[in-house]
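User: Need the bound-state model for zinc ion:
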Amino acid sequence: MVTVETETIQQIYNLLKTISDPEIPTVSITDLGLVRNVEFINNKVIVTITPTYSACPAMHFIEREIINTLQLNLFENVEVKINLNPAWSTDWVTKEGKIKLKESGIAPPLPIINKVEFKQNTITCPYCNSNKTILKSEFGSTACKSFYFCEDCLTPFDYFKPI
Ligand SMILES: [Zn+2]
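Assistant: Bound-state model below.
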């Protein structure tokens, strides 16, 4: 049985899906797994989010975006809670999010199990799927990404580091 509340929460999730990450506009905050929980109690929406390591300064921006987006859709009473424990992990990036990252030319993060030896891992080029890639720099366009170069299609790209 689908209750009104379940439908409302689904509707809220659908709205949250439209909010882009400020650093990577092609992925949404739900793609990155930032939204931990959505509640709807006594006509009040409570959205719990966990910031990524890179998005901390952007948190207030995301908070405002959530409130604005929901209020535009007639959810007047909105509270955003920030949960730092457990810390955000790249393992929370959804399948859809990883596809969108790749489409944006960013190699998606490998599962966390590979974190320790990530330098030894082969990172697949998001453009041509070649494994002939080399690490150029630990730090790419932002601290959370490494900079790689594909020796097949000669294209540089970012790799989203697992955390
Ligand atoms: Zn390539």
